[in-house]
Design brief:
Layout lengths: L2 H10 L8 H16 L6 H34 L3 E3 L3 H12 L1 H14 L5 H15 L9 E6 L5 E6 L7 H21 L11 H18 L7
Helix pairs in contact: 3-4, 3-5, 3-6, 5-6, 7-8
């Protein structure tokens, strides 16, 4: 029997030690009647309704298992890369042990964007799993790469346990350069982005991204 169905029956069953065997045997009938309106007296209809419920529960569990397996297969493929080789095994363990939670993350991603592919939703859910379980990974910063079967790739810099990362440092430099440019323009000065240092800051972003794309064996953007 499906584990979800077993749980329902256990929760709905008599809770006192004085419950009789007859009470326990009638619990499934009571649940079925409450859910479907079919009593135990209508044997054929009851069997059909019971089969429908079990199939629905099984379909849900089967779909969840399919999403989890797809994520594990993705992690085992060349589409996923990490600067820390321990990340993959930790992710696989977390996803396998918390399949229902992971499948819910994937469903939530697709719920936010109906046109999102399953692969993209899984990638986003993997990223969320890392962030939600940051303490399960190494204390230092690391980089993960996601490649999409249809083309394109994404690089993510996971900050260390104190929230510091190379990406954030580059972002701080870029924002400081941008602020300097705006200040110069407001004071009447003129100049290009490069005059305020935004050119080099932007170049650092591109160089950093290209470095990891190359390191992971991903194609560079054209």
């Amino acid at each position: 029997m499906n584990s979800a169905a077993v749980l329902i029956l256990q929760q709905a069953g008599p809770s006192t030690a004085a419950a009789t065997a007859g009470d326990q045997a009638s619990a499934p009938d009571a649940i079925l009647a409450a859910v479907t309106g079919v009593s135990g007296e209508t044997g054929g209809a009851r069997l059909q309704a019971s089969s429908s419920i079990n199939n629905g529960l099984w379909d849900g569990k089967e779909k969840q298992d399919g999403v989890v397996q797809a994520a594990l297969d993705y992690l085992d493929s060349d589409l996923f890369q990490s600067s820390d080789p321990r990340v993959k095994d930790t992710l696989k363990k977390l996803i396998a042990q918390n399949g229902e939670e992971f499948a819910a993350k994937v469903q939530a991603e697709k719920g936010r964007n109906a046109g999102m592919t399953l692969e993209n939703a899984i990638v986003n859910a993997i990223g969320a799993t890392i962030r939600d379980n940051r303490g399960q990974f190494s204390a230092g910063e690391f980089v993960v790469g996601f490649k999409f079967a249809g083309g394109g790739a994404m690089i993510q810099n996971i900050a260390d346990v104190n929230g510091n990362s190379t990406y954030q440092s580059m972002m701080d430099d870029f924002q400081a350069a941008h602020a300097a440019l705006l200040s110069a323009r407001q004071s009447g000065e003129t100049g290009l982005w490069s005059d305020a240092g935004t050119g080099p800051a932007e170049a650092n972003f591109s160089a950093w991204t290209d470095k990891w794309l190359t390191s992971f064996g991903f194609d560079l953007p054209e």
